[in-house]
Amino acid sequence: MVNQSLLKRPPIFPLDQQFDSIYIQFCFLIKILYDSFHTHIRYSKLLIYYKKIMPPKKTTKKVGSAKPPVTVEARSEMPKMAAASKDTVESSILNRLSQQFNLLAILIVALFLFQGYTFYRVKNIETKGVTGGTGQAQESPLSDKKLKEYAKDLKLDKKKFEACLDNGERADAVTADSTYGTELGVQGTPGFFINGRFLGGAFPFEVFKEIIDKELAGTSTGECLDYSEELQQYCQDEQNQAFKPVAVEVAVGNSPAIGSKNAKVTIVEFSDFECPFCARAFATVKQIKDAYPKDVKIVYKQLPLTNIHPNAQKAAEASICAKDQGKFWEMHDKMFESQGA
Q: Domain check: are 84 and 213 in the same one?
């Protein structure tokens, strides 16, 4: 099922708007295909019904009483008209079925062509970036070249950083975070655990504030109905919970963290540097840090969605390579800000 929290998020990038347009066109084509198929079935059933109609039977009657009975074939015009009408209807149905079949075949071909076009568009956008109005594809802000430029801007040791990135020295650390996130049930990004209570999606600051304030006041519970109506709509459906009030234990390990060591609230974020919703959440997390400088600690864990974000893996590795030189959060901010976050 679709995560309902995603449906309430307005597009924030041209890329989202292009995907929305492609999705609407795809749904429209599926609707036409569905209607055509059911029309085809309806006319097929009608044809079967008419085929079951038997031709009219011959009738006989006796003429006179003294003479031997004479069999007279009573053929009225009605059976002839009925038979002619039946042939006309059957022919009409066959013609309609033929038209429907042809339309169905055309739509199936169009659907496959549309899927191929969509795949090409998505791959083109993901690998080259959104055009900047000049008609020329722009380099992704998270390409290897750009990552090395950011490292230079942050005055990292060039040789160490490039060796770390090029040799994939931190790939295992990224994989470990991703595997752990999957084990915890995180299926998309961004995903947050606020003192163990899961919140999945780029929710506004006010939603985080409600949960954090309950944690600080000691009034948080594992009951969905103890939260606001807005949050209740995200936790009532067990098959599609964007908010899970029952706390689980989340190990921080040696993941990068920012905030007071004695903070009463720990937020563990599973994120993807190339995810547009994560870029939106980046601004929200900054609000949280400013609003709760002593009470909230933020922990970052990697969850690159490599099947749709081709640069996310290397970006995640780059952040850990920067962490090795004591500048994780600087690289973290740099990568999100480079995408307009």
A: no
